[in-house]
Amino acid sequence: MTDTGDRGGPGSPIPDDADVMSRDMRWFTYATGLGVPVEAEVVPEPRPDTEVAPALPEAALGDRTPLPRGTTELLERAPYPYGRAGSPPGSADALGHALVAGFGLQRREPENPFNDHRPYPSVRARFPVQVLVRDGRHRRVLDLYRHALTGVGRQDGAAGPLEVTLAGRYTRLPDSYRWFRSSLVGLELGINLRQLCLGMELFGLSGRLRLPDRDAGGLLTDFGLTPEAEWSLPLTVALEDGGPPVAAAPAERAPDPVLDGILTVNRCQDFTGPAAPLGPAIPASPPGQAGPAGPPRDGALSWAEVLWRRSAGRMPRGMYGMTGRRRPVAERTVREAVSWLSVPPPGPHLAAAWEELRLTAVFQGVEGHPDGVWHLQDGRPALHRDRPGAAAELEQHYGYPVTPYAGGDIRHASVVWFLSAHPRRLVDRLGPGGFTAAQYAAGWAAQGISLAAAATGLYARPARAFQEAPTKQLLGLDPDEMIVCAAITGTPRFEGLLCDLRL
Questions:
Q1: Which residues pair with 487 in a beta bridge?
Q2: For residue 401, how far is the Cα from the chain centroid?
Q3: In sequence order, which residues have a C-beta less than 8 Å from that of residue 90 and are 6 or more positions away?
């Protein structure tokens, strides 16, 4: 991530009052010159929010391969953060355990209108990203409620190397999200990529990441993900060298002009070069400190507990949003998040996008740190602006105000993290696909913040709902700088019944 400073800018390239649903598309047009219509007179009204794509692909009708049980017990024996779970002696189920660790159901909160919890967040709990596995002959999708891999797409190929693919479905999010579905799915792909790498690392698996090129749409056809225009190009992790070939996909257009604009952004990815080895997803142990063997010591957290604790905040009695309580927090809460933010995503392209991100935060009540605006410089927080009350100011710019029916509590947050980037720099460095690569990198970072918060007793809520113009002014960002993602962290106010769903 780049160092920060008070650099000037040419003025905001998009209207200050641009609505959140079209804002990112305007940034993309500014950065690339590839125009996408966003004006109301050329775009039809959205359908009702109830009309969304199903939770699993329609093609998921094949035979099921059960996932292994006992993943939670293995994770309970692995101390956080340096312990590793491994697999039972003689087990061939390492990938199955890795998928359950990364993506498995955790718990149900009866009062929560958005069930059920997984170890990672998703907008409106829609979970638009599917986890798909193929080994040449078989193609399967992760089916959590059946605790299985369910057949999907072609099943008639020759035996081949094992791959895990992540693909997001835009129509899993309501039409009212409009072009914003592009960024939200991109962010969730980054979140899911970190969870996949986390699960694989915990169970001793290695792999190589392949980002989309212009032929990557052939994988959507291979998995039977139709209509292809509703799906993002996939991210693929090969557990073995090579992979089953796929035919190039034809150029596509969507009949819906909003979805067609989303495809314009997604389909300009053309990341060439060999697949890149996965690096770590977890912060490295300090020099000379190896990962401990055996179960966690008394009072220490296990990986099972950290993944269980992950929360985006709670509300009582079926209310929406999140709320917290203001309290002083230890310096460790920041140190833990910074350690997770020190781990870049795998491969040179995502590493380059990661370097273009810069991180700004609003601190409140953090031990040893004055309240105000902070920048992350050389891996350490540096005070940018001493500003007590900055969190309360941020709440005025949050898109979900506190009401009798919903919580949007920013004024009590301990740290609100903001990831931002200069869109034209991304495109100059990585081409038009750099815009989407930044979403992947920011999602990867946001999930690191979420896990760090869980380990220190905080909730973490990734958000894109801040009004960009006044928020940038408060944070001291450049006029030509785009807020890619934020993460609100704080102490939860409410507790309640938790129903354990882990296997």
A1: 417, 462
A2: 24
A3: none
Provide the pLDDT for residue 145.
95
**Is the per-residue pLDDT at 8 higher than 50?**
no
For residue 359, give every residue at least 6 positions away whose Cβ sits within 8 Å of its Cβ, in sequence order, or none. 1, 341, 375, 376, 417, 418, 419, 420, 445
Q: Are strands 235-238 and 208-210 parallel, antiparallel or unpaired?
A: antiparallel
**Cβ 154 vs Cβ 59: under 8 Å:** no
Beta-ladder partners of 492: 324
Distance CA 238, CA 96 (A): 15
Split at pLDDT 50, 70, 90, the class of 10 is: low
Q: Nearest Cα to 349, choosing from 276, 456, 449?
A: 276
> Amino acid letter at 268?
C
pLDDT for res 362: 98
pTM: 0.95
User: According to the 3-state scheme, what is the secondary structure of 200-226?
Assistant: HHHCCCCCEEECCCCCCHHHHHHCCCC
Residue 497 · residue 109 · CB < 8 Å: yes
